[in-house]
Amino acid sequence: MKRPYPAILHTDDGTGYGVTIPDLPGCFTSGDSLDEALAAVQEAVEACLFDADEAPQASPATDVLGMAEAEGGLLAFVEVDLSFLDRNLG
């Protein structure tokens, strides 16, 4: 099961990129390039939801844009494969 989640993208003047998933407290990843940072999102989500039985619902974009971590960042949506949660139930 795949679900789109809002993500906040930040950069340090193009030398590094960070991605925060506000619906998953503490879920952050980074990379030297934007592609590298986005490619690491799945692994970060799996780590954040390691012991979870289910994933939280995604927040509306308007709610995310009002969050403190959105300041100075760019809103994007990332598709996350949540099928790993099925293994947690077994």
Assign the CATH topology: Double Stranded RNA Binding Domain
Could you tell me the strand content as a percent range? 25-35%
Report the structural category. alpha+beta
Largest sheet descriptor = 4 strands, antiparallel
Order of helices and strands: EEEHHHEH
Account of the 3D structure:
This protein has 90 residues and is α+β, with helices and mostly antiparallel strands. The chain has one domain (2-89): Double Stranded RNA Binding Domain (2-Layer Sandwich), CATH 3.30.160.250. The protein has helices at 34-39, 41-48, 61-65, 84-89; strands at residues 2-11, 17-20, 28-31, 74-81. It has a four-stranded antiparallel β-sheet with strand order 3-2-1-4. The mean pLDDT is 93.
